[in-house]
From TrEMBL:
SMART domains according to UniProt: TSPc
Family: Belongs to the peptidase S41B family.
Organism: Cyclobacterium xiamenense
Keyword entries, A-Z: Cytoplasm, Hydrolase, Protease, Serine protease
Any one of the GO CC terms: cytoplasm
Residues annotated as domain Tail specific protease: 111-311
Gene Ontology molecular function terms on file: serine-type peptidase activity
First-listed, main subcellular location of the protein, grouped into a coarse class: cytoplasm
Keyword Acetylation (UniProt): no
Annotated protein name in UniProt: Tricorn protease C1 domain-containing protein
Lineage of source species: Bacteria, Pseudomonadati, Bacteroidota, Cytophagia, Cytophagales
Cytoplasm in keyword set: yes
């Protein structure tokens, strides 16, 4: 099947890269120094976003290598390595061990702009759960809530919700708090929104050890799903800062679609496709290996900007209101 071939081939390539290892003349020693140096060196050669984040990786090494060498046990070594990786402020960079996984949450200091209890109590009513798509008609507008791109979508499920909303003026697709997953699920939705082959985004791959060693910018296209029904009317996609990784890619795709409005708050970013590497002690780490660009050339590591910004304050939550959803419904009904 030709549809989505170019995009899916790219993601498959990156998955294969996650298993790649640097060829060494002899097996590395399992010492604090060797584990630290391999992690630092691989990141230095393969991480794609140093320039964007204005990170002096040599200075980071000078701070954290002594801490790693002084570590008296695995926990202390882990803490030093994880702290070093978190200087990158990248949710796709983490260290995985049998006893812990390092993590960076870019959205913790950001306003929530979302509350599912408010949605469920005051807007959703007796909603349907079609696969992983929560759906309802709210004030004459179709509403779909998709909470994780890690959960698959079947064509039959999309067929159901599209048919349910066919006579309505449009649909609100709510991906707030969706932290990512499989981008193929987002592509399946997008393919129901387009009528012709469409450029969705561009990317560069870090392909060499030097700081400027990147592939040429490559464009990714998607063909429409001509075998199944598509969305009618106006489309509004709701986002907040928790939306990350495949969620941000979905938001980035919408920038190529004039009929789609992005509303709420900017996404959390995560444009670098993760690859990975094994350390001598058996631990594993991920790193961002690409740079992603929207169709207008924006590096969206810091987030995909919304077209219409709407906030949901603590006072709104206390009053049981979701002004982001209400604004989206108004837009779908009136076009402004």
């Amino acid at each position: 099947m030709k549809k989505r071939t170019q995009i899916l081939t790219f993601w498959t390539l990156l998955f294969c890269m996650s298993c790649e290892q640097i060829l060494l003349d002899s097996p590395p020693e399992n010492t604090n120094a060797e584990n630290f140096d391999i992690l630092w060196d691989v990141m230095n050669e393969r991480y794609s976003l140093f320039d964007y984040k204005h990170i002096d990786w040599d200075s980071v090494r000078n701070v954290y290598r002594p801490l790693a060498l002084q570590a008296k046990n695995d926990t202390e070594l882990y803490d030093a390595l994880a702290a070093m990786l978190n200087t990158l402020r990248d949710g796709h960079v983490n260290l995985r061990t049998p006893f812990d996984i390092s993590k960076y949450f870019p959205y913790l200091s950001e306003p929530a702009n979302y509350n599912f209890n408010v949605l469920e109590k005051n807007y959703l009513g007796e909603y349907r759960i079609t696969g992983y798509l929560l759906n309802q008609v709210i004030d004459g507008v179709g509403y779909i809530h998709y909470r994780s791109f890690a959960t698959p979508i079947l064509d039959s499920e999309l067929d159901f919700v599209i048919d349910r909303f066919r006579e309505l003026p449009g649909v609100v697709i709510d991906i707030r708090n969706n932290e990512g997953g499989d981008p193929a699920n987002g592509l399946k939705i997008i393919s129901r929104m387009i009528s012709e082959r469409t450029k969705l985004y561009s990317y560069q791959l870090k392909n060499g050890p030097g700081p400027d060693d990147f592939s040429e910018v490559k464009d990714s296209f998607l063909d429409p799903d001509t075998e199944n029904p598509g969305f009618n009317g106006r489309i509004v996609v709701l986002t907040n800062r928790v939306v990350y990784s495949a969620g941000s890619y979905f938001a980035a795709y919408t920038k190529a679609l004039p009929k789609v409005i992005l509303m709420g708050d900017d996404t959390g970013g995560g444009c670098g496709v993760p690859a990975g590497y094994d350390l001598p002690n058996g631990w594993y780490f991920n790193y961002s290996s690409t740079i992603g660009y929207t169709v207008d050339g924006l590096n969206f590591e810091g987030g995909v900007p919304v077209d219409i910004r709407v906030e949901m304050t603590p006072e709104d939550i206390a009053a049981g209101r979701d002004p982001i959803l209400e604004r989206a419904i108004t837009y779908v009904k009136n076009g402004n």
